[in-house]
């Protein structure tokens, strides 16, 4: 029963973020001094460009992005289908690709200690690693 409650809570947070928080975040994400980035993905069925605020932590050769809702999110499926996306981070526009889902044991040693502590506390188990391909 607890697992079901936790799943319902997670789904409620996910819906709230998608409908309320994400549109607000998109007004500032990707700016030079803001912590959140904007990931531009192309819909795998519609070919529409979708904007998703994410936390992209720089690592050698690319970025690590936490997946607090797991891998069953549309933006990740779109990125995996296309193979590349554009990331707006700290006022820069970069093309990223080679998406790879990794677990916390592999991702956390790559990121700075402050992120590591927060992501551990939040219990995030899966992460996306992407490679920087070029400036967009």
From TrEMBL:
InterPro entries: Split_barrel_FMN-bd. It comes from Actinoplanes awajinensis subsp. mycoplanecinus. This is Nitroreductase. It comes from the Bacteria. Gene3D superfamilies: Electron Transport, Fmn-binding Protein, Chain A.
